[in-house]
Amino acid sequence: MSESGSGKREAMSKVDTAWLRMERPTNLMMITGIMMFAAPLDPAAIKNLLGERFLAYPRFRQKAVNTPSGAHWETDADFNLDWHVRVAALPGAADKVELENFVGELASSPLDHSKPLWQFHVVENYRGGSVLVARIHHCYADGLALVQVMLALTDTAPDPEQQAELARTWLKRDGGNVWQRMLEPAQAGIGKAFKVGNKVYAKIAEMINDPAVAADVAREGGAITRELALALSLEDDPPTLLKGPLGVIKRVAWADPLPLEEVKTLGRALGCTVNDVLLACAAGALRGYLLDQGGKVDGLTIRATVPVNLRPLEHAKKLGNHFGLVFLDLPVGEANPLRRLERVAACMRELKNSRQAIVTLGLLGALGMGPQALQAPALELFSRKATTVATNVPGPQQPLYLTGVEVTELMFWVPQSGSIGVGLSILSYNGNVHFGLIGDAKRVHDPDSVTVRFAEEFEKLMLIALMEDWDEEIAAGGADATLKHFL
Q: 3-state class of 355 per DSSP?
């Protein structure tokens, strides 16, 4: 049965089934996102918008039903939009601390599995405007698809007539580049692995649904088999304050935004990518937090699982999960910010030529096909090999509007699985980079003490770049000109 919802029941894909079954009280499989607005929102207008655009995806009228023999989608005969859209007000000063606490409570609260697994919360009082908090279960879609869904709710102008003119060119001008930036690296890696060009997506689908095909692919490409063996043989991540027993309370925080153009300039100056810079800053922020908590960091390297999109561009607007995971080293034991950046960049280059993402996508499909009792130990096996999840999403670089109100900031947090208790999120929007963290309260009791260090780590790298420029000027005899420039 197709995604159009032509019947009341529909078999769930094996990968989506795996994400549905990953749910634990200690790690809820929700993607949580927030939009902050320059002016107050009208809850009635939000409901109308969601009814028109969000529910244009029939999947969001369906419940996710798990049974011992498999999972399926089932249309909710008692669907009520009022239950899925809630209005809230922040207590006290109604500022950042109160909003972070509110979002943390939502991220710790499970969705009702007797209904479609999503909710929107309209926070009416925040810094003179409003906030929209979205919670959507991971089994509905991966981050790339949900970004597309959320962007479909927005406009590029506050006025409907002006929007109608701009809408015809927006995705082609900006959104198309967003998807291309997300998809090109993954598509190149898949093409090398399978050498089947535009048939990559079909080959992955076959691999997930037919173990015999998976075996054939492994025989055709020994590299994939080696990646699987490597993933299984990785040592468990070392014990730290960030890794240990989990509770049921999540805490979230986000940093003040950084100018995206400054990050790009720094990346060019240091010969690395924007992604390298941001992840190195995240590693430095975690290092500072561990040191302040009395943790031992000398020589310490932890791993982050990083989602890699495996969705061809023509499938960008479809729901479901089509991504794999790679293990990225975060050298938090490296005291020198530049050396830390070099190590992150080197690991990223190596991963771009690997098949890890394809292997993990196939394993997720296999878990979805197998008995649920086998999923928990397999999930635990992989989650022991990482300390955090790190996601970086490039968003549109122009202001967006929702029901005519400008979106000032965006942030999201992806769920952690198994025994992983920390999630790092990086998102760029309208010329700025936003960094956020979600953590189990037992592992990160004060996430703001991590996020505040993100800008500090960036400033350290900026200083290093300036010093290198200064040394070059001195060597070239131009120190006087450089000094005048800084003065």
A: coil
64, 73 Cβ separation under 8 angstroms:
yes
User: Quick check: helix, strand or coil at residue 68?
Assistant: coil
Q: What is the rounded distance in angstroms from the CA atom of residue 183 to the CA atom of residue 187?
A: 6
- Confidence band for 414, pLDDT divided at 50, 70 and 90: confident
Better pLDDT: 85 or 180: 85
pLDDT at 481 over 90: no
What is the residue whose two structure tokens read 């397999």? 378
In sequence order, the 6+-apart residues with CB closer than 8 A to the CB of 460 are 284, 337
CATH of range 9-486; options 3.40.50.2000, 3.30.420.240, 3.30.559.30, 3.40.50.620: 3.30.559.30
Q: Could you tell me if 24 and 379 are in contact, meaning their C-beta atoms sit under 8 angstroms apart? A: no
Whole-model pTM over 0.90: no
Say what the pLDDT of residue 185 is. 38
The C-alpha angle with vertex 447 and arms to 441 and 451, in degrees rounded to 5, equals: 160
Compute the 3-state secondary structure of the chain and give helix, strand, coil in percent, each to the nearest 5: 50, 25, 30
- pLDDT average, residue stretch 11-27: 90
- pLDDT tens per residue, range 434-469: 999 999 999 999 999 999 999 999 999 998 888 765
In single-letter form, the type of residue at position 449 comes to S
Cβ–Cβ under 8 Å, residues 54 and 144 = no
- Is the CB of residue 108 less than 8 Å from the CB of residue 249? yes
Task: In whole angstroms, give the CA distance from residue 72 to residue 67.
Answer: 8
Q: Which residue has the higher pLDDT, 181 or 143?
A: 143
Q: In which element (H, E) is residue 70 found?
A: strand 70-75
